Amino acid sequence: MPFNLLSTVLLILLSCTSFALAQQGTKDLTELLQSNENLTEFTTLLTSYGDIYANLSFQSEVTILTPNNDAFNKIPYSSLGPAFEANQSQIVRSILQYHILPGLHPSESYNGTFAFDPTWLQNTSYTNVTGGQMVGGVQQAGPVNVFTSGMGTRSTLVTPDLRFTGGIVHVIDNFLIPPQTFTQTVPQFNLTAAGGAVENASLADYVNTRKDLTIFVPQNMAFQALGGTLESMPSSQLQRILDYHIVNSSTVGYSTNIPNGTVLRTRAGQNLTITFASNSLFVNQARVLQQDLLLSNGVMHVIDNFLDPNAPSVTANPEIPTGPPLLQGTSLSDNVVPFTSYLPTSVTSFDTASASATGSFAASDIGKGTTAFGSAAASASASSTRTSATKKSAAERVESPRLELTVMGGFLGALCWVVGAL
Description:
Oligomer: single chain
Number of strands: 14
Structural class: alpha+beta
Distance between the termini: 22 Å
């Protein structure tokens, strides 16, 4: 069935369902969004992807993390800006999918321990995690609920538990950012030595694309302490050391999945042991400094020292802040950070995606959310009349098929009557 016809049928059925629910006095997704003045921008975005919108409206248990209007105003200043500005429809689609969680996740279900929940983002062009890319959720002091996403982004829950017939809407103050590859992520956390080392050891393709990875990443200071030795060793020897920091299994090692005593098999073929002591997480002897940094294909944890494949049985000493390095070696002159010259010269978030998409939303759409739902036809066909905010002309920008609902408006009531009669 052609896309436009299929979408038309879906939206007719959606409208009929909405009409029936309204008659029963039950608030559906359309009514919920329409009644919330702080969600007009999200409403415009959602309705520009008609298939996602229709699918959402027929769900029985789903949770939507909904950026408010202020979050849309921040887009030009975030890593999402170029995708919206260039109207990269497939990327924007993946961003939207990343805000949708299967199942019901009310605010009271979160506590002081991080929970990692899958999302609708399963497109392998943007994620390689079994079951869908994850988003973190935790309740902090206040209490305040916070959601974590790619690049360490934090989104605070500002309006919780807006119920609709298909589930829950949580309003958040920032967009979630889909996690990026290892190479794209490490510079954000000053892990440049590790990023360059995997390039030097011919491991970049593996750590960027292999499914369901857990990577323990030594901080730059750990590389500095051994820089002279590491840079002078054969790449095969460096690879063996780095392999001992990589775990590939059917379960990604988020902190909630690796309790005290967990044994993990590494790519090097030897085991790592997880210890929780003195309120800190350790892997072998190394202390985890920062945990649960999401990647497109798993997760990484920053550690204070290298792990030694020749000493897999060494244990943690929680009494000292940072233990001495197990690997012996020398630093470079002036304590230079090694391997940074191997980093790609240009590392960007969100690689250019295919322009053939089933919806589109560009930076120029921001501020036009008030048309959504109040005038379905205006929302559906606005791409032909909006003035571009980018340097490209409207003809050059990527636009996707839209549904011209105006011509259907006069027949909608009759069609709903017919569907009801059937």
